[in-house]
Amino acid sequence: MKRYAIVVEDAGTNLAAYVPDLPGCVATAATRPELERRIRAAIELHLEGMAEDGVPAPEPTAQVEYVEVNA
To answer: What are the boundaries of each domain within the chain?
Structure first.
């Protein structure tokens, strides 16, 4: 089992997510639970496609942190 970081963004009319360690792996949805299901399915499909092409799955390396700033 691998644990990939995802980035979730408010796209105005929906939510969007992408996986920094898997370029091109994206999903969109109207709600957060739906988005989480869709990005999980997208990751699985992406990794399956890589395996079919004989490309090893990359190790997760992206890290997510927050910083506070005075704004």
So the answer is: 7-52
Question: What contacts 24+ positions apart, CB below 8 Å, involve 27-32?
Answer: 32/8
Separation between Cα atoms, residue 64 and residue 18, nearest integer Å: 13
Q: In terms of pTM, does the model score above 0.85?
A: yes
* φ, ψ at 49 (rounded to 5°): -60, -40
- Bridge partner list, 18: 7, 26
Q: What is the pLDDT of residues 10-21, one digit of tens each?
A: 999 999 999 999
* Interatomic CA distance for residues 46 and 19, integer angstroms: 10
Tokens of 57: 């799955």
C-alpha 1/C-alpha 11 separation (Å) is: 30
